[in-house]
Amino acid sequence: MIQSVAFIGLGAMGYRMAAHLPQHFDTVYVWNRNFEKAKQHATEYGTQAVELEQAVQADIIFSCLPTSQEVEDLIATVQIKSGAVWVDCTSGVPESAKKLSQQLKASEVDFLDAPVSGQTIGAENGTLTVMIGGEAAAFEKALPAIQAFGKLIKHVGDSGAGFAVKAVNNMLLAVNLCSVAEGFTTLKAHGVNLHEALDCINASSGKSGVTETVLPQRVLNREFPLTFALPLLAKDTGIALDLVRDAKLSAPVIALTQSLIQAASNLAEKDSDFSSAVKMYESWSKITLE
Amino acid sequence: MIQSVAFIGLGAMGYRMAAHLPQHFDTVYVWNRNFEKAKQHATEYGTQAVELEQAVQADIIFSCLPTSQEVEDLIATVQIKSGAVWVDCTSGVPESAKKLSQQLKASEVDFLDAPVSGQTIGAENGTLTVMIGGEAAAFEKALPAIQAFGKLIKHVGDSGAGFAVKAVNNMLLAVNLCSVAEGFTTLKAHGVNLHEALDCINASSGKSGVTETVLPQRVLNREFPLTFALPLLAKDTGIALDLVRDAKLSAPVIALTQSLIQAASNLAEKDSDFSSAVKMYESWSKITLE
Amino acid sequence: MIQSVAFIGLGAMGYRMAAHLPQHFDTVYVWNRNFEKAKQHATEYGTQAVELEQAVQADIIFSCLPTSQEVEDLIATVQIKSGAVWVDCTSGVPESAKKLSQQLKASEVDFLDAPVSGQTIGAENGTLTVMIGGEAAAFEKALPAIQAFGKLIKHVGDSGAGFAVKAVNNMLLAVNLCSVAEGFTTLKAHGVNLHEALDCINASSGKSGVTETVLPQRVLNREFPLTFALPLLAKDTGIALDLVRDAKLSAPVIALTQSLIQAASNLAEKDSDFSSAVKMYESWSKITLE
Amino acid sequence: MIQSVAFIGLGAMGYRMAAHLPQHFDTVYVWNRNFEKAKQHATEYGTQAVELEQAVQADIIFSCLPTSQEVEDLIATVQIKSGAVWVDCTSGVPESAKKLSQQLKASEVDFLDAPVSGQTIGAENGTLTVMIGGEAAAFEKALPAIQAFGKLIKHVGDSGAGFAVKAVNNMLLAVNLCSVAEGFTTLKAHGVNLHEALDCINASSGKSGVTETVLPQRVLNREFPLTFALPLLAKDTGIALDLVRDAKLSAPVIALTQSLIQAASNLAEKDSDFSSAVKMYESWSKITLE
Q1: Among C233, C262, C265, which would you mutate to test the A interface (most chain A Cβ atoms within 10 Å of its Cβ)?
Q2: Which of B54, B118, C87, C156 is the most exposed place for a label (fewest CB within 10 A)?
Q3: Is A166 noted as a catalytic residue in this protein?
Q4: C-alpha dihedral over A128, A131, A135, A139, to 10 degrees?
Q5: What is the pLDDT of residue A1?
Q6: If you average pLDDT over residues C100-113, what whole number do you get?
Q7: What is chain C's mean pLDDT, rounded?
Q8: Predicted confidence (pLDDT) per residue in D99-117, tens digit
Q9: Angle at A97 between CA B186 and CA A243, to 5 degrees
Q10: Residue A105 contacts C where some CB pair is shorter than 8 Å
Q11: Do D241 and B245 touch (CB under 8 A)?
């Protein structure tokens, strides 16, 4: 059914995600603002580096850009093939998804918000989680292409729902980043062995992705490898808080965490990994989490 | 080496923990305020229901009571065997552990704070996590007895350190309970399918013990089974906040969460499970998490 | 210079504000959606109840509506006299002021955001505080008309600045409402005489508009007279938080207060005065502030 | 009736408070740890610098020390005259007042917790506000002496109530310090004229002691004069939070503010005035409040 697919945006995630497509489809277009990267991808994986105009003639068009703004700007400049499905893997804004979905309907193009999780390693192994908002028919149509890089693929609701789930996921990550930093500086202040404490908590009810992975692999070893920039996490917490506000709900922990991550981001050095948010707590307490 | 062990406090946890001891030790005393329960335990598991005075003549004495206050009150009334190790599995107060440890030294009794996690199922299977504070020699001495019901057993620091780790663990549980309630009422307000969203988050960086276990097994099924009372979680968040305050640290998310759990506890019906804290959010949002 | 003025929106504030204009100007148009009110105003104060089309032919046009949305909707339907100054006394959204200011420039109409404070009593006495954003020339032009009801009249910055100051003012009101409710339920729980305590605090560094006026005149007497609806305060705290977010700042107390006022508003009965926010705290603590 | 009075603790406040006593009483003892200061006070104001043992033989004994700890330590070392009233003007801990009150009853000494507000200028002019906890009879007995430096003198409740009111007052000051810093950095980020904005807010519902006095006299002029040290404000916010916790109440804004003031205090230079707490917000926002 799907004759051609395209991938737009070959960043750390997109580059690896697009690499799986040639195994499943004969025609795979790639495009990137810095076009050298597209050509390199073509050489490396047998994709075709093409002009943007051609890329948007594919049956299934993936995009993976920094924010929804870039997606909106890019879509505004192109004439997408009628009948295509645009699958946006950006960690974007639900309102933007609704707007683009509505707008593209006029050209008979479906828009799915389809953010992913699983980091670069998941992209490389094709084991990403993909949370998708939009119409069921479009979801069914695009599914075979999404399966090239996704393992757990879920249709979570109407347009915007995918972005909403991703934003809430990243907000929960942010909440745990803050609360674990608070808890572990406190334990260290009381002379507790952090590595032993971590083992206990990871076998108990307080465990989280942060205690299982972020703290041991990024913080306690003092590596803070840049794979997901702190300002992007700040952006995502803002998307989550906007969802709360739009629905006129009250979410005190989310609201506070958005403030704290924003402060940590404002204080951080350029190109800091999201895990560097703990450094704000370290400066408050004069305690190093190691 | 260990000739006799005792277990004081046969509540939901203690009853099951003590049941493993006869497999490893010939002399196992049990005692409970409601003494019928001790006699029932003796009948069921072959332990000996004895007076408190005799129980505290064991080499290793376990206690598992609601709060440190009960432990202090009980210890004040007895003459413990010199050379014994008292292993307190209560989710208690670090300051109290330090005080009791100091006080019992005069009678040549060691005190270990040794709270457990793993719930009644872990107690039943003998697979509890045990986080222990106190002197290394006492830890080594008591270890064979603790192994009867513990799987991951960690010496996390000096006196009070075990209680501190447990308090921080439960605080992290509380933080996740609040933030997940906030995030999921928000997702539902936006029409997202909560079960699909949960699957995605449990495969992503925002996952936690609450998303993996509490939400699906207690909240979304509307069961809220009483296994850990909400006022006890409120108490534990207070212990964690006291640790923050004692060290003159700043922990905004912990401080806010303590307030929220206290409010939820004040609003809850009697005998509410800790997971009922989400109902406060449900009343704010008129949204039911199901 | 000013030949004619108009006042659009004769609510509790606008009705009283417009009443001062005939003392200073010969031609005073008034308009209200429910037109009976305009006719009543004309009879009572000698203003002229006119069609909206005629009202917007005045030299200075005041508006005082519930939110910026109503102002935008209304302006979209009319052809305003070239050279006029539109003075919007709504407690509005800074972004909306910037947009309208820009948009009306094309018709050579100036737009000033000019929210007021001082409540109905200040409107009646013509002693309102007016905080104004927009171009200095427009401010100078409209000043004589604003002086009809304003006492302290300040040009606080460019377009949007007036709304911003009002939003921050109302946010500070909200913060004090919450913190005073928290502090006074706590004092009452400890048996303190609230009236004596209030006298002390009002002579000390912790005093605020809430301790001086709101608590004694609305809460402690249990009257909660509806003069400023709680959902409108919730809206204003949202405007303040949006300002924080737009500037990528971190304001934890503001963020938390927005959440709390939103929860209090969601929980409140219809037509609750803003001071009713304290009732959320009363339900948490089972303590009545009286 | 009162034959003799004593004043213990001649700091910035106490030195000025004690200066009023010789106008009303013939025998005025003063004592200070650094005794040179007592001698200087005697020379300057005609008081008698005496040994601590003699000071506590007065009918009314005032103390004004940094914290309740110093008061407890000092009282533990002396034999107070039977029938005396000890009036402690320290900003102290309610629990400590209850304990001392109980303890001194055995020696037939009354203890009043009587913290003051009004700063050094109020101490100098004898116009302090005094909020008093303890027995009514003791209050009546000490009143003539308290009137020497107090203007508004209130009996607010039983033992501890005076300290409680002071702690809540200072907490409200702290809340306003934080929220005003948040609000004004936000206004500045949006180009608003801070001085004009301040005038408007001080005529509106958002005003407070911080907007009326602290912001213009300490912050905007960048003077931050040290009259009340930031760590002491942090201590007082802690006393207020303890009151909340003891009563098992929920006070999210108070809890968060305690955390923020603690962080600001931890980050501040030595000998920083409480108003320096705004500098934490300035570092987060790269905005200076001037």
Answers
A1: C262
A2: B54
A3: yes
A4: 20
A5: 79
A6: 97
A7: 97
A8: 999 999 999 999 999 999 9
A9: 20
A10: no
A11: yes
* Res. A153: pLDDT tops 90: yes
The pLDDT-based confidence of B1 (bands split at 50, 70, 90) is: confident
Phi/psi class of residue C90: alpha, beta or left (left: φ > 0; alpha: ψ in -120 to 50)?
Answer: beta
Given a contact cutoff of 8 angstroms between Cβ atoms, the answer to whether D279 and D289 are in contact is no
- C96 at the D interface (CB within 8 A)? no
Are C230 and D169 within 8 A, CB to CB?
no
Residue (of D93, D113, D280, D85) closest to D182 by Cα position:
D280
DSSP C76: T
CB atoms within 10 A of CB D200: 27
> Is the pLDDT at C1 greater than 90, yes or no?
no
Q: In degrees, to the nearest 5, what angle opens at C-alpha C31 toward C-alphas C26 and C37?
A: 105
> pLDDT averaged over chain D?
97
Q: Which helix (DSSP H) or strand (DSSP E) does residue D89 occupy?
A: none
Indicate if the pLDDT at residue C122 is higher than 90: yes
Judge if ipTM > 0.90. Answer: yes
Q: One-letter amino acid identity for C99? A: K
Q: Is the Cβ–Cβ distance between D183 and D192 less than 8 Å? A: no
| Chain B interface disruption, residue of A91, A116, A179, A241, most B CBs within 10 A | A179
3-state secondary structure (DSSP) of residue D111: strand
Give how far Cα B240 sits from Cα of B259, C107, D231, Å: 12, 62, 22
Q: Are C249 and D186 in contact (CB under 8 A)?
A: yes
What are all long-range contacts of A212-221, with beta carbons under 8 Å and residues at least 24 apart?
Answer: A213/B205, A214/A173, A214/A176, A214/A177, A214/A180, A214/A275, A214/B205, A215/A180, A215/A184, A215/A289, A218/A273, A218/A275, A219/A275, A219/A278, A219/A289, A220/A194, A220/A195, A220/A289, A220/A290, A221/A290
CA distance C170 to D204: 9
Q: How many CA atoms are closer than 13 Å to the CA of A264, on its beta-carbon side?
A: 32
pLDDT, tens only, B24-38: 999 999 999 999 999
Listed in sequence order, the residues at least 6 apart from C249 whose beta carbon sits closer than 8 Å to its beta carbon are: A262, A266, D182, D185, D186, D189, D284, D285, D287
> Rounded to a whole number, what is the distance in Å from the CA of A290 to chain B's nearest CA?
15
